[in-house]
Amino acid sequence: MATFAATVVATLLVAPVGSADPAVQPKDGAPCDAADPDSQTFAKPRSGTAEPEVLLCVGFQGRRWQRIDRLQRPVHSFYTYGPTETLYPGDVNLGDWWDGVGSTTDAICVAEQSFSDGRPSEIKTNNVGQYFGFKLSPEMASLSLKGNCRWVISPCNGKPGPCTARYVPPTIGSRERDT
Prior knowledge:
single chain, mainly beta
């Protein structure tokens, strides 16, 4: 029985987390319906601190990705389509509360914050169908974001409440905050 339980646990740990419709890599001119208006993203994952091509989601109905010269700092809304994207202290306001919201009901979002003071990194994630919040530490060295997710400054300043209702599109149904 112990061998069976260990096999089940091992299978769950290595099983890929996926979506029926995988996210599409953003491209200039392509639809950006999974992202919020004014969200920014990188067309390709960032390598080191060099800034790659930056895209901005423009419009309201029929939104499209549009190439821009550089990140509009501080970043208030960011979109990841799967691979890890990294933001640095100069990209955001340290001390802000952020929320991670899956772009689909089965999306898993992961935020890893590393620190300049030497303490271990903090990893936050959601459960399927939930979103989560985290605070950017004044000692943040980097913020790595992963998943088919929308990342926004929390309208509730880190507290669950009615101000998060905009995260619940009618097609997704009832979501709960994962604290």
